[in-house]
Every structure is written in structure tokens, then in C-alpha cells.
């Protein structure tokens, strides 16, 4: 197969599937991994895709399902910044939920020395924390997604409904001022919707690449959130728009409030231990 033909087929495949690994592309086209990496570098220079360690992906499309293995290798610095802020909001003794996102995996690494009860549907987080005696670890069952390395479905939702947590941290595919918090996977979005109803404080964690876009499924509006935690300053429009919902923004801006001010005013005023979102 000619190089130009192979590159076009790779482009079409990734635009359709939204992501692909080097190994699967090499097997599909019967060429070496290095040949595929060269093709991906060329396609990245053309602005077709973004390369990651071991693969490539695109961020367009409302139903964009990128493999966990690819997502876990990108924007690591940004996820680390978010994770450190989240740690400052968590106290020893808290009951915490972390969802199946790669950003919450960074949070799990940041809090692995704390004394917590931690609930999750993420297999990587379960594996990371399984030998930590200081963490009371609860994994929810259900169907298993090999693409997301996460548990989901009615059994997982039923398990979540057995618990109530101090703080939940979850991510999303995209978020915008007008469309709210959105996702690409309906099944796993339901897990996020369920935990919103089972949390005293709800924190959305999202790096800068997820803003000002919309995806397939609505998770919630901003009235459901205690705060959004991201890695770069957001526009004044974001701050003004979310203020009316009582949703705080931690965005690494110079005027950012300290950890003691971590809960928004709406959450501070609410002492009945009831979730914000119903």
C-alpha cells in the first residue's frame, strides 16, 4: 500500500473512531510501529490529529469516545495541577468519590497518603489504592467497560445509592456556558448523574481543553456543582455566568482564593447535608 493511501486510511479511521493506538494501526496495515509513528507525525503536522504516547486522537465530535489508555498519557501536567488543588479541599476522615476519569486518577495519586474512605468505579484507581492500609477502599461493581476501564450500569448505580459522600470529584467530556456539563458515553454519564445526588459537595474537574464545547449527553447544570477545578484562568464571562449558580471556579488565576475558601457561598450556607442537585 502506498504511503499516501495508508495515511488517508489512518486519517479516516481516527476521524471515525476518534482514537487509535500505534499497535492496532500497525497490525491493521501490516507495517512496523515506527512506520505508523511517522504517519501520525505527518498527520499531526497537518492538523488532522493529536499524538499521544502510543497512539493518536481527535477532540472533535459530540460523541467522542477516546480510549482510557490514550487519555491517560496526555495533559499530565494539567491534571497534576488540578489534583493538587483537589487535595487541598480534602481532609483526613472524608468520604470521597472519584469517578473513572484520568484526571481523578491523578487525584487518587495525590491523596494516597491520606486517611480516607474512597469510593470509585475506576479499575485503575482500585489497583492503585488496593494495598493502602490508610484508605478504606470501596469499589462499585456492575458491567465493565474495557475502553474506559470502569464499572457502570444499573448495578453500579444501585451500589452508589447505598452511600452518601462528603465530596465527589468527577470529570466530563466537555462543558460550555450555554449547554452545561456534557459527556459522550450515556452509560457512564449515568454514574456521574447518580453521584451528584449522593454528595454533600460536588466538584467538577476539567483541564482547559474541555471548555467551550458540547457533547452528546447532558450530565448537569452548574447549579448542581460546588465548584469547577481547572488548570488555567477562565474568561470573566465564565466567572460571571457561574456566580449566579453559586458555583465557584478554581482556575489558577493570580487572585485565586486559598484552600480555606474552597467551598462556594451557596454550599457554606447549606448545613442540612442534602445534595444540591436533584
UniProtKB/TrEMBL annotation:
UniProt GO molecular function: DNA binding; DNA-binding transcription factor activity
Membrane-crossing residue ranges in chain numbering: none
Spans annotated as Disordered: 256-278
Domain HTH deoR-type: from-to ranges: 3-58
Biased composition (Basic and acidic residues): 263-278
Presence of the UniProt keyword Nucleotide-binding in the record: no
UniProt keyword Secreted, yes or no: no
Keyword terms, alphabetized: DNA-binding, Transcription, Transcription regulation
PANTHER family: AGA OPERON TRANSCRIPTIONAL REPRESSOR-RELATED, HTH-TYPE TRANSCRIPTIONAL REGULATOR SRLR-RELATED
Protein name, per record: DeoR/GlpR transcriptional regulator
Underlying gene: ydjF_1
